[in-house]
Each structure stands twice: as C-alpha cells, then as structure tokens.
Amino acid sequence: MSENFGVVVAADFEFEISGGDYNLRSGDIPMPLCLVAHVLDEDLRHVRTIRLWRDELLAAKCPPFDVGPDVLFVAYSAQAELMCFKALDWRFPVHVFDLHTAFLARSNVLLPYNPDEKRNKPRKRLSDACRAYGIEGWENIDKETIAKDIGEGHWCKYGRERILDYCEEDVRMSVRLLRAQLRGLPGLPPADIERVLFWSSYGANCVALIQARGMPIDMPMWNLVQENKGAVIGELLRWFDPSYGSDAPIYTPEGEWSYERFEQYLVRTGVAAWPRLDSGRLNVDSDAFRLMYHVPGIEGLHALRRTKPTVAPCPRHPRVQPTPVLFRQYQPLPETVGFLVDFLFPQPH
Q: Is this model's pTM higher than 0.85 or not?
C-alpha cells in the first residue's frame, strides 16, 4: 500500500431505506444516518477517527477526508457507501478497494458436481469474511436486528451514540480484514490489489450510479406488455409449457406454477431421476433444470420459469442491485425475449 497510497480511509455509513424521518418508500435512494471513518497512514496505522451524524453529513459539501489520487477508500460492499456519497452529492473517491470483492475473488470456487453431497450456499457478509480470516467480533451485538432496525428507521430505540459505536465496530473490523487480506492465509492467498481496484471500479462506482438512477425501462414496450398481459402469458405457456393443453398442465391459465402438477408431469413422461432435496421434494432451482436439459421440453420450461416474472407489475422505482449474479438470475432467456418481440410486433409476411 505504501508504494501507491499515502492515506487509507476505511469507512462505513448507516442509512435508512424505508420509513424514518423522511418516510422513505421502496425504491427511494437510501438516506444516510451516520458515518464513521478510520483514517490510516501508508502503513495502515491509525491516525484519526471521524464520527458524523446526519445533520453534520447534510451540512457537509464534501467528504470529511481526502478522496484524491493519493488516497485509497476502503469499505465492504462499497457500492452502499458510494450510494450515500451520491445521496449527499459528494465526489466519489478516485480509488476504491472493496473488501467484499477481494473476499469473493479469493473464496469463490467452482466445485465439481456431486449429487450425493449436500451443499449450502455460503454467506458473504462482512462477519462471514472476517471469520474466514480468523477475525472474531460482534460477540455482544445482535448485528442483524440492529441493521434491520436502522434500515427501517427504528434506530431511535438505540440512541445516537450506540448507533455510532455499532457503525465504528464495522469500520474497526474492516481495517482488520484489510490487513488480513493483504497478508493472506493458507487457502486464501493475498489479495491481488491491482485487480481488486479494477473490479471495484465497477462493483462500487458504476453499481452505485446505476442504483441511484434506477434501471432504464422501455416504457412503451412495458405498457404494451401490461395491456396484453393475459394474451402474452397464454402464448408463453403455449410455446414453452410442455404440458400445455393436457388435463393437468404445469401452469394454470393465469400463469401460476404448480409444484404438484410438475411432479405429476414427470411421472407421466417417465422422468424418474430428477434431482431431489434432502426432504425428498423435487429440486426446482436453475442448476437442477440445467442438469435435466436432455429431457424434451425441460429447457423451454426453464425459460418460462425465468421469464414469467418479467410480466409482473412494474415497480415504482426499478432500483435493484445490478450485480452480475442478479443479472443472470433475473434476465429472461434470449428465446423468450425474441418471442415477446415477435408476438407484440408481428412482421408482415
């Protein structure tokens, strides 16, 4: 760090996302409540602590620390902090090191498929990253409850100083995590600083701007889909539900999925080897469907399951967290996008 940055700032905001003094609703830009930052020197030694409450933040015209080219801004899931920068109309830091990005880069692995092995998706919160590096903390704090209360505007039950202390604990742990990521551990090599800085420029800066502005929607197309919703759903079912027209279709005419009728369909068509959960129920996640694409009709059914939510009511402000994972999860498949275009805008023959 000393070769590139003379100052390192580890920071964390607490903010409201609903309710509160500003009566926030779903989709509104988060409203910062407080900021705590630890300013470090080039050797990551503590220099000073900054603790600011909402009134001080709203009065500030710029961040209370330098964000120029000689400074490295550090945070966990830094897009949340930069959303607060955006809400306060502050200039973004030139260099961002996202601890979450660094953790994902070292902990995400693609294991070979094993149908007999039970796997739980690991969580990737700040506390999880710290534990992975052998860092303990928050022993006497109900972190999830306090975070939920702050987000919903119920922070008053804790008081200003306790919220600031809670926020500073995250900053303190972030500094310890940064040091650990730079050193590395067996199985967790030292962070690739150059790549993490590059990835953080998207994972923080760009995502924060996208979230602040909302997701662009082709409203004429959207309105056309909504006006013809019943017909669109009917045609999607006719094209992609392999049980369409049978006595027990997987989807109702209104487009509602039925687990029971899907199970019956598999029995009727002789599919006996569908992946199952420990409970014995069918596994209906995307990985299970992809594994069964060799069965006629299953790929189209999977496309239908992934596309159906796109004809749901439009959110007031379409602000979702546009990470690559979420894009892959919620984007409709290309074949169904093509179908919608062909259905709504038929070409003359």
A: no
